[in-house]
Design brief:
With 377 residues, the chain is of the alpha/beta class. It folds into 2 domains: 124 residues, Alpha-Beta Complex (Aspartate Aminotransferase, domain 1), CATH 3.90.1150.10; 240 residues, Aspartate Aminotransferase, domain 2 (3-Layer(aba) Sandwich), CATH 3.40.640.10. The protein is built from 12 helices and 12 strands. The protein has a 7-stranded mixed beta sheet, sandwiched between helices. The chain has a 3-stranded antiparallel beta sheet with strand order 9-10-12. A two-stranded parallel ribbon has the order 1-11. Helix 2 runs parallel beside helix 7 and helix 8 packs parallel to helix 12.
């Protein structure tokens, strides 16, 4: 244990799969030419880029859609939300999202409110951490043009009913439905074909940082956020990194092909941890739901930051609030949205699993949580 790091913060990022890294390195050295160049080497890079694009669309059964490679879900979310809202603002300036979205979604909507005159409705969540479909239905107005609702929450793992949301929005052809699927892709089955746009990152599924994509229906136009040479069908200019695109396709193929096996494996881990937490109601309150990849709980007797730090010194890596805003925000707005107290929202601990983990990791976490509760005053 002294020489081993037990990494249980996979919702923040995952260890790159060696096969993905190998694919990246080989592509980077063999197909380094700019895919926009017209010479033979450039054409070879262009063909490989197109193949990676086609593979990803095929894996998700959305072959008729359009894929835009990005630097990750943050950029993809911004392109989808701001790009769509600004492109179609002549149809209306009302937008809908939820109170528990990732900061890259919430901040994009806030910018549209503060600087471009849009009005945003932020849907609450129910006791299961998901939206109520009636709240969405009641929020829709004649001037609503975009709904953005995440598939899986990054802090508590709650899952929204994408089928139900999509079926409702089918009655509103002028409203586009976008979803941040970052915490769900490659982990749970999702109806990608029912979304107008969806965003994701590679580094959550053992891919590389700075790889991601926005997938949208071909009929949807976006106002580009990055202008330049017209790459990615003029939606995202800049020289393509072919190796990153290939590595993303590889990471997705590996994760999707083992989705059911990994889910069953990780469910065993979460059940063991949840059993311990439930057996100690005076020490912990569980905040997460029926998603084995993320177990979120509040510490009732110790400061979460102290517990996280103590675990870290013992070689066990977990998180308190989302890594994307951990240094800015000492309180979890997601836990607050569940109707829980400030104290509980201040003391959240998130354990997030991946296929790299094993049952020994879970047992070590529980063993050390027990010791920390005995030792810390």
């Amino acid at each position: 244990m002294a020489n081993k790091i037990i990494y249980l913060d996979n919702a923040a990022t995952t260890l790159v799969n060696p096969e993905v890294l190998d694919s990246y390195n080989k592509t980077k050295t063999q197909y380094f030419a700019n895919p926009s160049s017209i010479h033979i080497s450039g054409q070879e890079s262009s063909r490989l880029l197109s193949k990676a694009r086609e593979q990803i669309l095929s894996l998700l059964n959305v072959n008729d859609d359009e894929l835009i490679f990005t630097s990750g879900a943050t950029e993809a979310n911004n392109l989808a939300i701001k790009g769509y809202a600004l492109r179609y603002q002549n149809r209306g300036k009302h937008l809908i999202t939820t109170v528990i979205e990732h900061p890259s979604v919430l901040e994009a909507f806030k910018q549209l409110e503060d600087n471009f005159g849009f009005e945003v409705t932020y849907l609450p969540i129910n006791k299961n951490g998901a939206i109520d479909i009636n709240d969405l239905k009641n929020a829709i107005r004649k001037d609503t043009i975009l709904v953005s609702i995440m598939a899986v929450n990054n802090e508590i793992g709650s899952i929204n009913n994408i089928n139900e949301i999509s079926n409702l929005l089918n009655d509103y052809p002028l409203i586009a439905f976008h979803s941040d699927v970052t915490q769900g892709i490659g982990k749970i089955n999702l109806p990608y074909e029912k979304m107008d746009m969806f965003s994701f990152s590679g580094h959550k599924i053992h891919g590389l940082n700075s790889s991601g994509a926005l997938i949208k229906r071909k009929k949807i136009e976006l106002l580009p956020l990055i202008s330049g040479g017209g790459q990615e069908n003029n939606f995202r200019s800049g020289t393509n990194d072919v190796a990153l695109a290939v590595s993303l396709a590889k990471a997705m193929r590996l994760s999707i092909s083992s989705l059911d096996h990994n889910f069953a494996k990780i469910k065993q881990f979460s059940e063991v941890l949840l059993t311990y937490l439930k057996e100690n109601p005076s020490l912990y309150e569980i905040n997460s739901f029926d998603n084995p990849y993320i177990v979120n709980f509040s510490s009732l007797t110790k400061k979460a930051s102290v517990v996280v730090e103590s675990l870290s010194t013992r070689g066990i890596m977990v998180s308190s609030v989302s890594a994307c805003h951990a240094k800015k925000e000492p309180i979890s707005y997601v836990i607050k949205a569940l109707g829980k107290s400030d104290e509980l929202a201040h003391n959240t601990i998130r354990v997030s699993f991946s296929s790299d983990n094993n049952i020994e990791d879970v047992n070590a976490l529980i063993f050390n949580l027990k010791n920390i509760n005995k030792e810390l005053v």
